[in-house]
Amino acid sequence: MIFTQHHRLDLTNKVVIVEAVGHVEHVDKMEIVLKKAINLAHVHNLKGILLDLSEVELSYDNVRLMDILLRMRDEDWLGLLRVARLLPKVDLGHTHALIADISQKFSLPIRNFESKSKAIAWLLYNYER
After folding, report:
1. What domains does the chain contain, in order, with CATH numbers?
2. Whole-prediction pTM value?
3. Residues 86, 113 contacting (CB under 8 angstroms)
4. CA-to-CA distance for 126 and 97, rounded, in angstroms?
5. What is the pLDDT of residues 45-69, one digit of tens each?
6. What is the pLDDT of residue 93?
């Protein structure tokens, strides 16, 4: 399935919503999507990013993924932003769990969620249950 994505601003909740569909084999594609969302959030003074990956299959190199997450931390891409990742019901690979582990170890404000309401609650109110 071809990878497609679009960004939209939710100015009421002060978040960028990224909805993506398809298969991603190269981490570079997701890096571009994330950088665009980060830029939009900074330009519009928003609180966070909701990355809806519920219809995305990820299968990319773990070394490149770690490199991007390290650069994200070292270059402070996010600043005060948070990233909530809305995941598919079934994770066929290990990429989502790996991102969660690395984000925690690197102290990145990135969390995985299975429901949109919980993701928004965390983005807006730091509420996690």
Report:
1. 4-125 (3.30.750.24)
2. 0.90
3. yes
4. 21
5. 999 999 999 998 888 778 888 899 9
6. 62
